[in-house]
């Protein structure tokens, strides 16, 4: 914003599927998502890597435990994102890999709400390490080691295929890539090793 003070971005927060659909309907010029499955008419470009980790509130019995078996994790209350979210897809992929279907799943449409509920001891969750950086640093949430975790994933910029790109959009994309690189370096995340 300091570099381009005349540009006034409008930011929408939604899951991957919804962002992709809004791009197709030309309601958005660009999307930043955690899912790569975007369907027809769009192209994606990787901009950052991340890890997915299970976390629990600091007082939870599993907080900081050495590797916990999948069968034990099945018995926990799980806090998950809504369908269409890349994080939800990652959670379901993890359950499928483990061959479990937890009976207690609470679906929520906000990562922040999920983190707060996990902090309060209301369940455990699989989330992006990037989205958890403050809670992990403060100790409010603790990792739960489990088979096959953490696993890597990527964040992508979505654009409509074939659309001409304005100078404003090109400037935004260049600034986004530079800012992302700096933030990842500051957080100690090696972008080349993730995703």
Automatic annotation (TrEMBL):
InterPro entries: LysR_subst-bd (IPR005119). It comes from the Bacteria. Keywords: Transcription, Transcription regulation. Residues 4-179 form the LysR substrate-binding domain. GO terms for molecular function: transcription cis-regulatory region binding. It holds the Pfam family LysR_substrate. One of its GO terms (biological process) is regulation of DNA-templated transcription. Belongs to the LysR transcriptional regulatory family. This is LysR substrate-binding domain-containing protein.
């Amino acid at each position: 914003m300091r570099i381009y003070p005349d540009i006034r971005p409008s930011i929408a927060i939604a899951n991957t599927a919804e962002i992709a659909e809004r791009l197709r309907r030309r309601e958005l010029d660009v999307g930043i998502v955690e899912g790569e499955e975007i369907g027809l008419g769009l192209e994606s470009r990787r901009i950052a890597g991340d890890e997915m980790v299970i976390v629990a509130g600091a007082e939870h019995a599993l907080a900081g435990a050495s590797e916990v078996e999948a069968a034990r994790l099945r018995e926990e209350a799980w806090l998950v994102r809504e369908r269409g979210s890349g994080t939800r897809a990652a959670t379901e992929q993890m359950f499928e890999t483990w061959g479990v279907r937890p009976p207690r799943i609470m679906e929520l449409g906000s990562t922040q709400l999920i983190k707060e509920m996990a902090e309060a001891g209301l369940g455990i969750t699989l989330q992006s390490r990037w989205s958890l950086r403050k809670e992990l640093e403060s100790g409010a949430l603790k990792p739960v080691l489990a088979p096959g975790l953490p696993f890597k994933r990527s964040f992508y910029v979505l654009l409509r295929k074939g659309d001409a790109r304005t100078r404003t959009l090109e400037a935004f994309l260049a600034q986004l890539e530079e800012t992302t690189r700096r933030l990842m370096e500051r957080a100690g995340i090696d972008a080349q090793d993730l995703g």
